[in-house]
Amino acid sequence: MRRTLATRGAGRLGCILWLAVLAVVAHVLYIAVPIKVRTSTFYDFMQEEASFASIRPVQQLQREILAKARELELPVTEDNLTIKKTREAISIEAHYEITLEFLQFLGSALKDLRTRVWKFDPVVVRPLFLV
CA 122, CA 74: separation in Å to the nearest integer? Predict the structure, then answer.
């Protein structure tokens, strides 16, 4: 005859741990995915602006890129945005970082564990074509 009394309820703790891990992963994705979408949208906009750089002055490009960064709530300023236009090509660089704060309910005791700095350095180099 088998003894099944010793194995009753053994799966409950494992289920709770997996649910906790799933909750942490979902929270990290909830914080990180919107930021990644905004930065990818900004990079696509930089590529689009670079493709029309032959007919626009550098100041107009800078204004439009900074306006898009403000719209997307990205910390891009004139200081960390570099636009270089030569006869052959245009180069647009933006260097910025975003601080991600996870699990804010933990308080300040574990601040090093719940904060991460995500650095972005999008660079677009396109040849200029006369239109």
Answer: 13
Say if residues 91 and 82 touch (Cβ distance below 8 Å).
yes
84/30 Cα distance (integer angstroms) = 36
Q: Which of 61, 60, 55 is nearest to 91 (CA)?
A: 61
What Å distances lie between residue 1 and 4, 5, 6, 10, 116, CA to CA?
9, 12, 14, 20, 56
pTM for this model (two decimals): 0.80
Q: State the Cα–Cα distance between residues 27 and 29, nearest whole angstrom.
A: 5
Segments of 37-114 assigned E as strands = 81-85, 89-94, 96-101
* E strand or H helix that includes residue 125: strand 123-127
> Per-residue pLDDT tens for 50-82?
998 888 899 999 999 999 999 999 999 999 999
